[in-house]
Amino acid sequence: LVSRDNHPERSTIRVGGVPIGPGTVTLIAGPCAVETPQQTLEAAEMAKAAGATLLRGGAYKPRTSPYAFQGLGEAGLRILADVREQTGLPIVTEVVDAHDVELVASYADMLQIGTRNAQNFALLQAVGGVGKPVMLKRGMNATIEEWLMAAEYIAQRGNLDIVLCERGIRTFETATRNTLDVSAVPVAQRLSHLPVIVDPSHSGGRRDLVLPLTRAAIAVGADGVIIDVHPHPEQALCDGPQALVDGDLDELARVIREFPPLVGRT
Ligand code: PEP
C-alpha cells in the first residue's frame, strides 16, 4: 500500500489543511516536551513567527530513563489544544501506548510514532484505525525496508495519511546522538509514495548541528523538517541541548525559504 509500484505519484498529506509533500518544505517546530502553558505558548509563538505551519510538542515522552520527565499526559494535551486555539497552529504529538490512541487522537491533528515504538505493531495498527494523519519516525535500528513495513501496518488499517520521518540511526559514531541517514530520504521517496521529512534535532542531539543538518535534509529533497525550540533551553525538562532559541529558528526558516524544493524530481 505504501509502495510506489502501485502508486507512482508521490502523495501529499494534509494536516489541518497544511500540506506535506512534493513541492513544499514544511516547517514543523515546537518544544520537545510540553512543560507548562507559558513555555508551550512561547515556543509556539517562536515557531509561528519564524514561519512554521505546524506545532510539535510531546505530552507523552518515551524517555530512555524511567527517572527522566515522562511528560504531562492528558494535561499536556489540553495545553496543546489551548495553544492551537491561540496560535491557529495544528498540533503534532506523540502517542506511546495503544490504549491512549483514541484519547490522543481526540486532541491531535497528527499522531507521532517515535523511534522507540516504530515496530510496536499493536500501536501501529491502533493509529491506523483512528482516522488521523500519522508521522512515523524511523526506528533507530530499522532498515528502510523495516521502516516501510511499519508504515504498511498503519496503511493496512485503512489510513494512508502517513508521513515518514528520518531521525537518525544508531551507528558506531558517538560525536552525535544518532547519525542522520541523508540517503534514506531519496531512497524512501523512490520506494514509497509517502512524504519523507527529517528531524535534525533528534538526529544530532546538538543545537549547533540543527542548521547544517537542515541544509542537508533540504538538499536531498526532504518534504519538511521537524525542529525542537524552547524559550529557555537551559531550563528544559527534555533535550534542552538540541533546542533552538529565537534567532536560530528565524535563520533556519530563511534557509528553507531560500532553498527551493526539488520540484519535478521522480
Ligand atoms: C520526539 O520527537 O519527541 C522524539 C522523542 O523523537 P524520537 O522518537 O525520534 O527520539
From TrEMBL:
Origin superkingdom: Bacteria
GO molecular function: 3-deoxy-7-phosphoheptulonate synthase activity
Transferase listed as a keyword: yes
Residue span(s) of domain DAHP synthetase I/KDSA: 17-258
EC number: 2.5.1.54
Origin species: Streptosporangium brasiliense
Keywords: Transferase
Listed name of the protein: 3-deoxy-7-phosphoheptulonate synthase
